[in-house]
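Quick illustration, no need to memorize.
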Amino acid sequence: MDNTILCIVKKKHIYIYSPSSAVRDKVSFKRGIKRLQALGHEVEVDEAALASHQRFAGDDETRLAAIHRAAASGADVALISRGGYGLTRILPGIHYKAVAKAIASGTCFVGLSDFTAFQMAVLARTGAVTWAGPALCEDFGTETTPDDIMEACFDDLITGQGEGAGWQLPKTTMHSIDSGADATFNIKDSVLWGGNLALLASLAGTPYLPTIKGGVLFLEDVGEHPYRVERMLNQLLHAGVLARQKAVIFGQFTNYKLVPHDKGFKLSTVVAWLQRQIKARVLTGLPFGHIATKVLLPVGSKITLAVEGRDTFLLWGHQH
């Protein structure tokens, strides 16, 4: 009897929609839905989730309507099918009050990559919290078994049990933050924000990049060579964004290739360069990005960043 009650309590309503690029891998899409259903959740698929127009999941109006249906769905989680490209071109058409109302009513909007544009715009316009986390196809629809840590973090979100995330700093990071392995510090009551670096840089100078002072900015990207990463960081630096932060945290930067011409210029070079440019703490190793093992992060929430030696924690307490 107790087990039956537990299953009933745990079951959640998940709404799947496609606000960015078209779903090309239908197999992973269906596999992801089946896996969520196998976990005991009610999965509702938006009517245009598999729409296709050029490279997009339907034309602009179709994708806007999908976002608004997700907001009106009453779901516990509105989960994107995939990222790609498409949200920046429709930001002016989003009904932000409707999205904020849905969030206030308990809907958690979850995604990553191109979804960063939506998250930044919602934060800038309403101050509402969204979640940086998995996508249906990439994370639940994978050919292999979905990552245990990702699933556990997702379960914490939908059950309201998540209170934070932790990881160990790479040893190379310690040289830039304080006195070696004894480094200990806390940054309290700072807004956690960020996501995909390319999207953040593309929003600089627009009304869709929030003005966060004293924040903790986290970054990730895929397929971007370190020199392009540095160029985008320069854009945020010259725009004054980085100087306003208390900490900048590098997540995972994946799927790029160094070449002989680099002659030792690599991502760690960029990290060291950035630390010389700003007073904020610069940390690395956050398990988030285009990787299987990813934590979920409340974008726009007040958090505490605690570092004890190499042990690092982002703490936010219960969100709902």
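Residues 1-9 have pLDDT under 50 and may be disordered.
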